[in-house]
Amino acid sequence: MATIEEYLARIRPADVEAMAAAGRRQQVLTKPAGSLGALEDLSVRVAGMARTCPPPLPEPAVVAVFAGDHGVHAQGVTPWPQEVTGAMVANFAAGGAAVNAFAASNGIDVRVVDVGVAADVSGLDIVHRKVRPGTRDMRREEALTTDEVEAALLVGLEVADELVAAGYRCLLTGDMGIANTTPSAALVATFTGTTADDVTGRGTGISDATLAHKTETVRESLMLHDVPGSDPVGVLAAYGGLEHAALAGFVLGGAANGVPVLLDGVIAGAAALVAQAISPAAVDYCVAGHRSVEPGHEIALKTLGLQPLVDLDLRLGEGTGAVLAYPILCCAVRALREMATFESAGIDA
Asked: How far is 154 from 1, CA to CA, in rounded Å?
């Protein structure tokens, strides 16, 4: 089995020559230059990921839903009981969640990965890679040990490797974990130099009083640990969660395999910040599927330098925003691959 360092050694920045060729091709396709807006830039980026122009279609695609629980749930940061995480994992496995419905509509496969669910889900037909049954309470102590962080990172790296080896050419991020927007806020604040007030949102929908308490929980956690963003493993150890660490590994694994990684919302954004801190070139392979209503997500995307493809006021998670954005990614690549040039169409422009 490969080590984290061996995976990281495979990550290369996007190919500038392929991107330049894609930019030139965009100028001669049968349309006014720039008329496809962000799709043109996206197609250029995908060419850089694939290291060729035009790039292959990013298909087939799979969304990996990493699931874990959080000790900070004990602080009352959400009204939802922790047992919902395990129940929703069973719902994913049965095909009954929103991400299942959206994925079926877009021809995307779903893989559910238990990396840290507190409940026993061993009887479900999912990918079983549990590192531990939930994190510790980040407001009281470190959420994870360094060994646990590295184990969860390896889960994501290995899952990405396995999926690409199985033939998938686009990896989509999904997540499930009651209370996981709380550690997300701490992660985003740490890597962007912002405050708890800037990044803490309502998650699944909470009252003003609970939001104030949640924000204070994030603030106190940041003060307790005070880990610099230059120590990404230490940051994950301080705040968690296990699905964040696995998703960071998943992003790194996609980059190591040279395939696009289509990010979902704030959980994925926080994980991508971790991946960026570990290997800056990994962000070359990231595409922002959507903009979440969580305030920390907007901040994360700006730091990552990514433009979201859709903005639909989503805050569900699961990978739903990434799945909805996938056809847009495919259209951007199809335009670069399949549109005629003015010369081939016999148009004097």
From this structure: 10
Q: What pTM value is reported for the model?
A: 0.97
Residue 346, helix vs strand vs coil: coil
Residues constituting the chain: 349
Q: Which residues pair with 116 in a beta bridge?
A: 68
**Residue 14, helix vs strand vs coil:** coil
Q: Which residues contact 292 (CB under 8 A, 6 or more apart)?
A: 265, 266, 269, 298, 314, 315, 321
Inter-axis angle of helices 266-278 and 295-304, to 10 degrees? Answer: 30
Q: Where are the domains of the chain?
A: 4-56+334-338, 61-329
User: Tokens 């290291």 identify what position?
Assistant: 51
pLDDT at 206: 87
* Candidate list 40, 150, 294, 318, residue with the active-site label: 318
Structure tokens at 158: 């290995």
Q: What is the DSSP secondary-structure string of 47-98? A: HHHHTSSSPPP--SEEEEEEEE--GGGGG---SS-THHHHHHHHHHHHT-SH
Q: Selecting from 2.160.10.10, 3.40.50.920, 1.10.1610.10, 3.40.50.1220, what CATH number does the domain 4-56+334-338 have?
A: 1.10.1610.10
Is 318 a residue of the active site? yes
CA quadruple 330, 164, 162, 274: dihedral positive or negative? negative
Which is it for the CA torsion 11, 17, 23, 25, positive or negative? negative
Q: List the CATH code of the domain at 61-329.
A: 3.40.50.10210
Residues 6+ apart with CB under 8 A from 162: none
pLDDT one-digit tens code per residue, 112-135: 999 999 999 999 999 999 999 999
65 contacts 112 by C-beta, under 8 angstroms: yes
- Please name every residue paired with 290 in a beta bridge, in sequence order, or none if there are none: 310
